[in-house]
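Example 9 (inverse folding). The structure is encoded as follows.
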């Protein structure tokens, strides 16, 4: 089967083809490229409703002016296979370290879509913590289920046990979440542990910000020279504690000053995929 025959999303007329009768189809060029890569990995295209949700995400992020800030990212749901879910939106494909994640860890849709951690498996994003500027970085994840214990959702660290200039999103039992962007000391959000979007960003030397459970937080931790380790998803360098959370999305890149914009787009994406599959 040729790749072209697998893709119901393209149309010969310039500008895309948003409707076929009453059926809307994706049309953003970057979304189409991503969907084609997912179809190649899966061996079949995703359902039109999933493709449209992806298309809406691409278009929405571009309309909000935040698309270019996303440098490494995966939608860890929607695709038909784990291989498809590890196709990157942009940037380098993550490495499934030691092939730790297997097909049974992956749920395409429903109420809790995403890739379930097991406390030992993790992804290497392929993006170094210093690939973005000292005062120009964001990290985000979308949790479909919360961790069972204190653990790393996404992070970097210089071995042996030197956290200078690190960036991390961490679940801490009873806190519930800690964040840092290019600094040794972490800051905490307030409230109780819940699922959904959690992200942090830094666009200045004397403050970093976070968004969790629909609320913005800020801290005055001064930035440090970022360490050079790759950012890991479900883990940090050199190791753990590795999370057992189920994640449906992650992104890494340059600073996003209004994380509410990314929150809204990611939440709408995961909700739409969950309803479509």
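The amino acid assigned to each position is listed next.
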């Amino acid at each position: 089967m040729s790749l072209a025959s697998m893709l119901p999303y393209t149309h010969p007329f310039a500008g895309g083809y948003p409707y076929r009768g009453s059926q809307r189809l994706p049309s953003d060029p970057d979304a189409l490229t991503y969907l084609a890569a997912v179809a190649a990995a899966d061996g079949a295209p995703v359902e039109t409703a999933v493709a449209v949700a992806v298309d809406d995400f691409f278009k929405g992020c571009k309309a909000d002016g935040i698309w270019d800030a996303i440098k490494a990212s995966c939608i860890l749901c929607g695709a038909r296979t784990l291989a498809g879910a590890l196709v990157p939106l942009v940037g380098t494909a993550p490495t499934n370290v030691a092939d730790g994640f297997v097909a049974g860890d992956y749920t395409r849709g429903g109420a809790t879509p995403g890739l379930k951690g097991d406390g030992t498996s993790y992804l290497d994003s392929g993006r170094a913590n210093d690939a973005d500027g000292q005062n120009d970085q964001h990290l985000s994840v979308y949790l479909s289920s919360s961790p069972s214990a204190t653990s790393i959702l996404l992070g970097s660290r210089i071995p042996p046990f030197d956290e200078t200039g690190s960036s991390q999103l961490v679940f801490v039992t009873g806190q519930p979440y800690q964040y840092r962007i290019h600094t040794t000391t972490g800051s905490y959000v307030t409230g109780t542990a819940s699922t959904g979007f959690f992200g942090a960003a830094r666009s200045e030397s004397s403050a970093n910000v976070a968004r969790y459970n629909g609320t913005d937080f800020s801290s005055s931790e001064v930035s440090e020279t970022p360490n050079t380790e790759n950012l890991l998803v479900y883990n940090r360098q050199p190791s753990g504690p590795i999370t057992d959370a189920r994640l449906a999305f992650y992104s890494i890149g340059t600073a996003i000053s209004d994380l509410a914009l990314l929150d809204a787009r990611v939440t709408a994406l995961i909700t739409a995929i969950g309803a479509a599959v």
